Amino acid sequence: MKDDILNRLQFSLGKDADHASVYDWRMAVSLTVRDQMVDTWFNSTKEAYAASSKRVYYLSMEFLIGRLIEDMISNLQLEDTVRGALTDLGQDFDEIVHDEPDAALGNGGLGRLAACFMDSLATLGIPAFGYGIRYEHGLFEQSFAQGQQVERPETWLNQRHAWEFERPEVQFPICFGGHVDHHDGKTTWHPSEKVLATAYDTPVIGWKNEWGNTLRLWSAEPVSQFDLDSFNRGDYLAAGRSEALARTISRVLYPDDTTDSGKELRLKQEYFFTAASIQDLMRRYLQDHDDLRQLPEHVAIQLNDTHPAIAGPELVRVLVDEHGIDMAEAIPLARACLAYTNHTLLPEALEKWGEWLLGRILPRHLEIIRIIEETQQREHPGSPRILEHGDVRMGELAFIMAHKVNGVSALHTELVKETVFADLHRIHPTRIINQTNGITPRRWLYNCNPGLRDLITDAMGDGWVADLEQLTALKAKRDDAAFMQAFQASKRDNKAALSNWIGQTCGIALDPDAMFDVQIKRIHEYKRQLMNLLETVALWNDMRDNPDHDWTPRVKIFGGKAAPGYYMAKDIIRLINDVAEVINNDPATKGRLKIVYPPNYNVTMAERLIPASDLSEQISTAGKEASGTGNMKFALNGALTIGTLDGANVEIREHVGSENFFLFGLTAAEVMERRQHHGYARAAIEASPRLQRVLGQIAEGRFAPHDTGRYHGVVGMLYDHDYFLVTCDFDSYFDAQRRADNAYQNADNWAAMALMNTASMGWFSSDRTIKGYARDIWNAHPPRAAMDR
Ligand SMILES: CCc1ccc([C@H](C)CC(=O)N[C@@H]2O[C@H](CO)[C@@H](O)[C@H](O)[C@H]2O)cc1
Q1: Which residues pair with 197 in a beta bridge?
Q2: Atom of ligand 1 at shortest distance to CA of 111?
Q3: Is residue 642 part of a domain?
Q4: ipTM reported for the complex, 2 dp
């Protein structure tokens, strides 16, 4: 290993050990490790071809990968080898790992789920491709100026990305605009604009390097690089115009994670990667097959929400216009290949494109959508329409063009059947199924929590890493004092390490024995960071009113970005930082209450915060969080959940036991019922003196003395609108927090509850989730029977 690293340093980086930077060492290590996985990758590809296996194609606008170096090293079981080699070379493994920028090619849950799924598909040995966009700039960098979020372009590609292979030979033309001709039964699309999609491949190697799949990300490039005539005329801007325009398509990730931007460029991004992916998978299929009617036997396409829903009309277009299959046959043929996952019920997140816009950008596709609509209406009169009020509704299109539609938690799937797709569910009663989300235990326990990992592996071997339900065996350790001692110590060590990091990055001193209460996720009103903040102020009040009480010291940690245009979310961020400023400098509650909000929350920060957490905040308004996956990561790492009966919280509580979960709040049905009551917010506030006091302090500028009206909007929203029932759940939440306080006072009992969480989270492995998709949707199997566990 040592020689290989030095070899790469010399011949790939052109550096000798004495002059190498951390970047050079990281590149040398990454390229050396990458060398070790290429064989597995090639062999897997060959095996899939040899077995003419069915392939899964996971189409997603987002892959929130984070860092890859640790993942690659541990999946190849090379950690000790690399650590040893670097030590011999006088280099620090952790410093080198931390030098890798996050691949932040996603907003939140949907993007991270796609990344976890890729790891599980490879670990299970199921032949698969992830298809997405190689954004030049991922999710923006967040910083705070006077407590307010400031966004800066993310720049992960300023350095070479060690793990990707450019595939200049894998390039497809992507067309836009123009018009469509119909001559004697033949249809021809005459586009007005064309760009090239070039593939960049990243190998996805499974646990223990047994199988390798590919993440193929498309980058937009101009058909003609450079307009020499304009240049010679001195019109330099014109010379580079076509290039700039083309590259714009894969320039940046849209930072909205719940609001449909409706922007033309977003539609072009969605079509760009979808069309490139379909051309690529058709090329691969036609290499070994010539009868397109067998396509569904060999191709399973999963649509990660509606963002790639244009895949339905695009596949029909290719089958009909390029392969001469009859429209009436092409539609069911395409449907047999396609499946769609819904990740949200929020009306503002359900994509719909103006018919005029879609018709201008994709004229042939609008024609095909009209035919799909007619076919659906003919076969199911009165069916909900795709084309409605001048809009193309992508949810309805995805549903009608999919043979299976799934929700991402048991509760969410029921709500999908009862609300957003109730009418389509009545017409197609077997199409909607549930596949509760999961997380990869490789990144979210094995890599991010080495202390707990070693404790578990010492106790039961490492079989759990690829078979997480083995963790149930840990329940027997509840009465093993030595084990419980070590279990508590590993959490304590993680908290001490986090306290150091927070000290360095935020300049705030933390007490590692305090309860670390953590809410990390995108900032959104339905996730109710505001309710958490209001409870914190109420606790602060009580601590100041009752200084002699034996208070459980509490550290509130927030992390999360707001979509740049989401002003209420940005106000909530500012309020959290303003309240932190006051409370953290209050001598009356020194050592008892701290609020920390490290900027630029991302995958790597989650890997640092979650292992050091005692309490996991999953407090969304019931019926709003489709699943959540952070909730699973916390529980797996021995944090207790305070939460509502929402999304996967319901199933987590079923698995870990109600006695090991701090439940509060209205149920989804009660939320719907309460909303019928006019003035429910004012009624709730009047009924809660504690809440009234807190809202009064915020409204009068207690936390913004130089701008007292700053939060009138936030408080006014709670009194007059409060759509997410913060006011109605506040007292129940406050009481649950006090229950957590009392429980934390008994460290051994808390540790036992935490152990029950870790031990009961096996089912929430994304391996189990992917097995469900493979069984119930894709009918896909590992070609290597040995891996078909
Ligand atoms: C059109 C803009 C846009 C972009 C992304 C999205 C995503 C669907 C939002 C998202 O990330 N949803 C989250 O998906 C997770 C994975 O299934 C769930 O665990 C979360 O509950 C859900 O909010 C909606 C709308």
Answers
A1: 172, 220
A2: 11
A3: yes
A4: 0.99
